[in-house]
Each structure stands twice: as C-alpha cells, then as structure tokens.
Specification:
Shape: elongated
CATH class of one domain: Mainly Alpha
Radius of gyration: 30 Å
Oligomer: single chain
Strand content: under 5%
Number of helices: 21
Order of helices and strands: HHHHHHHHHHHHHHHHHHHHH
Length: 479
C-alpha cells in the first residue's frame, strides 16, 4: 500500500498539460517520434540495444526463451484496500482486473518446452530447437514453443523467420505477452516504428487486464516521449496491482527518461524490495550506479548479482566484460564475453568487444579470426577496421613472416579505411587521427633508418670495390 500511495501522489504531479480520458483515443506517433529498443524484456534475459541497428548496448538479443506457463493464479488482495470504481453491474475490483487465462498445456508438452529452455540458456540451440519441435508434435498449438523457436531464430540472425514464429504464437493466443514483445522489438529493429506501435497499442487496448501488455505500452509511450499518456496507462495498471513489477519497471524507466533521477531511483529501490531476486532489476540498478561518480564498485556488484541470478544474462555479462576490459583484466573480460557470445552468436557488437578483449590479452589469432569473420560478412563494418588497426599497431604484434614496417602499413590502411567508412559521422576527437599521425611517425622513422642502412651498405660496398681496384694498381712485376 505504501508503494501505491507514493506513486499515486507522484502520478498526480506529473501532468505537463491536460490529460486525456481513460478511453479517449491516443494519436498515432509520427515517424519522427523517438523510440528505441528497450534494454531488456520483462520475461527473461536481455535485449541490449546494439551499436548501430541492433540496440542500446550492442548485444542485440531480441527476447529470451521462456518456460511453459503455469495456470494463472488469482492474486489475493488485502481486505482493507480500496476498490476501484465499480461498473454499473457492480463488479468488484478482482472481477474487473481478472485477466483471461492463457490456454493450459499438457504436462508432456511442458516438459519438452522446459527442456528446450535449459538447452537454449546453455547456448545449445540445435538441441533446444529439437526439443521445441517435439513439443509441437505433441501439441501443434503449443504457443510457447512457437515463441521460443522465434527467439532462437532471432538470436541466430534470422529475424524474418523469428517474426513469423511470433505471429504464429499470437494467432493462437493473441495477448501472449512474450510474443507481442518479441514481434514489437523485431519491428523496431527494422525501423518499422508505426508497425510496432500499432501492434502494442491495439492489443493493450483490447486486453486491458493483461498488465504485462500495459507495461509494454508504457514502455513504448515513454520511448516516444509521450510521458503523460505513459503515466496514465501505468496508473490504471497499478490500480489493479500496486506491486506489479513490470509496470513499476516501466515507471522507473519513464522517470529516468524525464531526467527525474531521484524519482527513478526511489521507484527502483522500492521495486527491488518487492522483487530482490529479479536479475533485470539488479542490472538496472547497476546501470544507474555506474553513472554516479564514485559508485563503480557498487555497480559491478549489482552486475555480478544479476549474473548470479541469471548466468545467461548477456547484457549483464557485457557490462561486466566492459568493466574488466577497462581495468585491464582481460581474461576475466573474455570469460564474461564468451558467455554473451554463446547466447547471442550473431551479435556483431558482442563479437567486436570480445575481439578487443582477445587483443588486450595478446591472443592475436583469436582476435583476428573474429574480426576477419565480421569483415567477411560486412566489409563496410567500420568498427572492425578500427579494431584491426589497434591490433596491428600493438608493439608486440606478430603476423606470419611480415616485418614491423609491413604490419604498421596494415595498421595505417585499417585506420584510413575506418575513417573513409565513417565519413561525416566521425567525431572531432576520434582517436584514429592521432593513431594515424603516430603511425606515420613510426613508419617514417623505420623508413629513414632503412634508407640510412642502405646508403651505408652502398658506401661500404663502394669502398670495398675501390680498395680492390687500388690493390690491383699496386701489383708489381719483377724480371
């Protein structure tokens, strides 16, 4: 009750203008509205937004595999809690907020699905896919199996196939929230903002008692800077369940989006009291702490806690990998990043930072193998050229029979290609300019030294020839 009272007070203070009525239509966002892929789905591991077109943090996970659902259990409310306004027929709050249960699956189908989830979280995608196909043979309408097949397809880079699986799951259960989120995120990753918004807007209005959908709608409204509407939707959801964790998470993100850091932290701390073992919340708290001066150690502790709670949490693994990389703990960074790479084998940002960790550890062949593979798939990947340049310019780098000058020229070529590909996007303080200048000086010194050696060799050779001629002139013949 304390959480609800606080939030209701805060919600009343958020209006920046006139609010719409609860049932008044909300306008479609324009194509210029800003929506970014959420950092992580509510249902499981993360969808870190990648560098470029994959999301925020570079990991690119679409959604997480989820186990088979258990039968819905009605939450019991405290007797002294206020009821929301009754409708004309006198429905109680419990009746008004009751969500239509999802279809129950037979136990044998659940076993196949849960087996697949275990495989997928270990990165064994082929085995997971096989178990999910077994579930569908057992029950062709096993909607969680279809969704999980979509997750695996998306992780392996087949987004169109993933979207089809999500649609098939929604054709069976139209408000199956993991599939709604997966499809919305896939639309957003393709830049199809109107499709993502229309999908969630329609379903959230049609299934008002599905609080997970309402939370997702809050999230989308927040990313589109429609803050008043987001608060309004969240308030309605909290009237049904004041401790609903996904909605509270969405409110936390909404507060941070509005630059209301203290409010966001307050909500985050309260929701952590409700769900202390929620890996996603631990990660979110770590992200918050990471931005605060002098609180890096606390942030790392939260990231580690998130990984303890969910070992395949790729976004938390990447966060820890970055911290270890920055501290020069390359082997520890590699350990975390390899887990993220196993979970997200098609994530370019994860592969880039893993290659960087290998480079820092002096494991040149592994670093170069990753970068060469990325460039084979996308020759215009500027970051891969940059990382190759960093590796080639390392003082102790060796590459086959190439000498130092040849390797430094490769570094210069890599940085030049990087700058050409970046074009007008390159920052004024981009370090590649300094690297190129330093490389130019090193190359010049080596070339000057070689010229001096060659000249000295020529002089020595010329001197030896002259001595031989002089010796010939000094030959005397005696009768």
């Amino acid at each position: 009750m304390r959480v609800l009272l606080l939030l209701m007070l805060l919600l009343g203070l958020t209006a920046c203008g006139k609010r719409r009525g609860a049932d008044e239509p909300i306008e479609e966002p324009s194509a210029g509205g800003e929506i970014v892929v959420p950092a992580a789905p509510y249902e499981g591991p993360e969808r870190p937004e990648e560098l470029g077109d994959e999301g925020k943090d570079g990991t690119g996970e679409g959604s997480d595999v989820v186990p088979a659902p258990d039968p819905d259990e009605s939450s019991e409310e405290d007797e002294d809690e206020e009821e929301i306004d009754e409708n004309p027929w006198g429905a109680t709050r419990e009746e008004q907020c009751a969500r239509t249960p999802w279809p129950e699956l037979r136990e044998s189908t659940k076993r196949h699905i849960n087996e697949a989830v275990d495989y997928a979280r270990r990165g064994a995608h082929d085995e997971a896919r096989s178990a999910l196909q077994d579930a569908l043979r057992d029950d062709p309408r096993a909607y969680p199996a279809l969704y999980n097949l979509g997750v695996i397809s998306e992780r392996e880079g087949r987004r169109a196939e993933a979207m089809e699986y999500y649609r098939r799951a929604l054709a069976i259960v139209s408000d199956y929230t993991p599939a709604v989120r997966g499809l919305a995120l896939a639309h957003l990753a393709q830049g199809a903002l109107p499709d993502a918004y229309a999908l969630v807007d329609h379903l959230a209005r049609e299934h008002r008692t599905n609080l997970e959908l309402q939370a997702l709608f809050v999230e989308l409204l927040t990313r589109n800077k429609r803050y008043d509407d987001a608060w309004s939707v969240a308030r309605r959801a909290l009237e049904c369940d004041e401790r609903h964790v996904p909605t509270l998470k969405a409110l936390m993100e909404l507060s941070f989006a509005q630059k209301r850091e203290e409010l966001g932290e307050s909500i985050l701390r309260q929701v952590l009291e409700i769900a202390p073992n929620d890996a996603e919340l631990r990660f979110a708290y770590g992200e918050f702490l990471e931005k605060q001066p002098g609180r890096t150690r606390e942030a790392i502790a939260e990231f580690r806690r998130a990984v303890e709670l969910r070992p395949d949490y790729a976004e938390a693994r990447v966060a820890l990998g970055r911290q270890e990389l920055g501290a020069g703990n390359y082997n520890d960074a590699i350990e975390h990043l390899r887990v993220a790479d196993r979970v997200l084998p098609s994530s370019t940002p994860v592969r880039l930072i893993l290659a960087d960790a290998y480079r820092g550890a002096g494991r040149w062949e592994e670093a170069k193998s990753i970068l060469d593979g990325l460039l084979a798939s996308n020759p215009n990947l500027a970051e891969a050229h940059f990382n190759l340049g960093l590796m080639y310019q390392a003082p102790n780098f060796k590459l086959g029979d190439l000498d130092e000058l040849a390797i430094l020229n490769l570094a210069r070529k890599a940085f030049t290609t990087y700058r050409d590909l970046m074009g007008s996007r390159i920052a004024r303080d981009d370090p590649s300019a300094e690297y190129l200048a330093a490389l130019g000086r090193r190359i010049q010194r080596i070339e000057d030294a070689r010229r001096r050696e060659e000249e000295e060799a020529r002089r020595r050779e010329a001197g030896e020839d002259a001595e031989e001629e002089e010796d010939e002139d000094e030959i005397f013949f005696f009768d």
